[in-house]
Amino acid sequence: MVGSTGPRGRARTGWIERLAGRRLIVEAPATTANLGAGYDCLALALEIVNRTELEPLPDSGGRIELAVEGDGVGELPADRSNRFVAALEMGLRRSGDSLPDGLGWSIRMRNEVPLARGLGSSATATVGGLVAANVLLDRVLTPADLLAMAAELEKHADNAAAALLGGFVVVDGAAGAPSALRFDAPSALRCVLFIPDRQLSTEAMRACLPAAVPLADAVTNLGRVALGVAGLSQGRLEILDRLTRDVLHEPYRAKLFPELPALVAAARGAGALGACLSGAGSTVVAFSDSASEADAIGLAMMAAAEAAGLGGAVRVVGARNLPARVFEL
Q1: Dihedral of CA 141/143/145/146: which sign?
Q2: Is the separation of the CB atoms in 322 and 166 below 8 Å?
Q3: For 237, which of 6, 215, 230, 231 is 20 to 30 Å away at the CA?
């Protein structure tokens, strides 16, 4: 009961005081990861955003009320396996206090990021839950804390870093304590997304990769990543031609996504600065610094998809240099 004695009682009283009457709106962006050669270490935030309204429900019997608009209607679980809820409660537990029995949540999602299309929908939910928790904790968690928790849930840090920080990110996630550096994307950059109707499982697309790769391929990708990061940090978008040519994962993933080479070739043939698989797919992303060329690239990718019998849609968006954000109502 409220006001009971002992550590459990003190924690419960503190949580009720902290959560009572609070309402948040959380905004977290889509991301495109790898950018070709930068497997698991490069990503870019996009101007496609999921917005979630959150309200604590103390003494609700732990009820999760979930309403979804947009992508994911009827697909997202209305329980604690929901990635947003799991991240939210993970973040709150980092305060050192156990959550009170009966705490539930009212969650209303407006989702623009499509599921299982290589645009970071899972990372968007994870980061959204974590930054919401941090606001409820009066922002005691650092960006490094948030990135470490996101990587723990996501199993890799590239999408999460871009959603959390915005802009281009360079990530080292192999040592168990991920770190990331970011820099702004040029305002002229346009990202042309061909988003297939077909979903692709991240697990399946990772499982098709070999356990070892030729040394020459590893060296090729290392050079392209180093050159790509240096060039992009200077605003030299022409470097995307080199960066987006991968030899470590796309050739293997094309076995599960056979339309990929034709879509990439169509984008490059229409003038794209570069083109590659977005994350684990199924989205293919191409880059341009011209609005008119971006439209032509989208038409070329759509024509290639139609020729292969692959349904989908094109969307042209800018990069997002803003981090994930929380607004308190």
Answers
A1: positive
A2: yes
A3: 215
Structure tokens belonging to residue 287: 């880059």
Count up the domains in the chain and report the number. Answer: 2
State whether 121 and 204 are in the same domain: no
Tell me: do 202 and 292 sit in the same domain. Answer: yes
User: What is the CATH classification number for the domain harbouring 300?
Assistant: 3.30.70.890
- HEC letters along the chain: CCCCCHHHHHHHHHHHHHHCCCCEEEEEEEEEECCCCCCCCEEEEEEEEEEEEEEEECCCCCCEEEEEEECCCCCCCCCCCCHHHHHHHHHHHCCCCCCCCCCEEEEEEEECCCCCCCCCHHHHHHHHHHHHHHHHCCCCCCHHHHHHHHHHHHCCCHHHHHHHHCCEEEEECCCCCCEEEEECCCCCCEEEEEEECCCCCHHHHHHCCCCCCCHHHHHHHHHHHHHHHHHHHCCCHHHHHHHCCCCCCHHHHCCCCCCHHHHHHHHHHCCCCEEEECCCCCCEEEEECCHHHHHHHHHHHHHHHHHCCCCEEEEEEEECCCCCEEEEC
pLDDT, mean of residues 64-85: 94
pLDDT per position as a tens digit, 254-313: 999 999 999 999 999 999 999 999 999 899 999 999 999 999 999 999 999 999 999 999
Residues 193-243 pLDDT 10s: 999 999 988 889 999 999 999 999 999 999 999 999 999 999 999 999 999
For residue 1, is it within any domain? Answer: no
Residue range 17-48, pLDDT digits in tens: 778 788 999 999 999 999 999 999 999 999 99
Do 178 and 278 sit in the same domain of this protein?
no
What count of Cα atoms within 13 Å lies in the side-chain half-sphere of residue 47?
Answer: 13
CB proximity list for 254: less than 8 A, separation 6 or greater: 260, 261
Residues 199 and 298 in one domain: yes
